[in-house]
UniProtKB/TrEMBL annotation:
Buffers cytosolic calcium. May stimulate a membrane Ca(2+)-ATPase and a 3',5'-cyclic nucleotide phosphodiesterase. Keywords: Acetylation, Calcium, Metal-binding, Repeat, Vitamin D. One of its GO terms (biological process) is regulation of presynaptic cytosolic calcium ion concentration. It comes from the Eukaryota. Transmembrane segments: none annotated. Residues 72-107, 116-151, 160-195 form the EF-hand domain. The gene is Calb1. The keyword Magnesium does not apply. This is Calbindin. InterPro entries: Calbindin_Ca-bind, EF-hand-dom_pair, EF_Hand_1_Ca_BS, EF_hand_dom. One of its GO terms (cellular component) is cytosol.
Amino acid sequence: GNGFMDGKELQNFIQELQQARKKAGLDLTPEMKAFVDQYGKATDGKIGIVELAQILPTEENFLLFFRCQQLKSSEDFMQTWRKYDSDHSGFIDSEELKSFLKDLLQKANKQIEDSKLTEYTEIMLRMFDANNDGKLELTELARLLPVQENFLIKFQGVKMCAKEFNKAFEMYDQDGNGYIDENELDALLKDLCEKNKKELDITNLATYKKSIMALSDGGKLYRAELALILCAEEN
């Protein structure tokens, strides 16, 4: 459930894809053949759901509506998200999802019929509403982003436990207003680097900071949203 497949996951997917097409009496499309040639061998490469969607037949491939230059930026994605998650709760409901998708499509200069938009909304809920609560979390919708722009998966393996995260956040949110700014983030990231010397390279702090600042609201990083990146999910 981390938004991409790699290694054995990817090989198993390719095997099942080939078997399913053969069983249905269908050959692989040229796009599928190219995909199999590229990823069919043992590999540690990663492929995200948006990248994977490119091998689907065009009429079925609604995810590619979001695969355009305007939506490759996590900053653009978060600007649209902010419009609907104004309380920084980290999720939007099913009704807001339709408007959210419509805004993303307009940002990408795509015009579609309302019936098609409704269909896409229903597909999104089926694909991404992992806990079936009728709400789409930021962590779920961020999978629309290509892997290289997905700020939610860049810190896997270096996340703090909830207690550790809250202690660090409160240390830098000294006025208790629920958010920290970019300068305070520098200090928090240095703490994180100290605790995870093997996984995080302190020389890449600027890169890490750029990924996290995509979440900021006017330069403010709220606790709940920052926790999505830096706090271990099991906590």
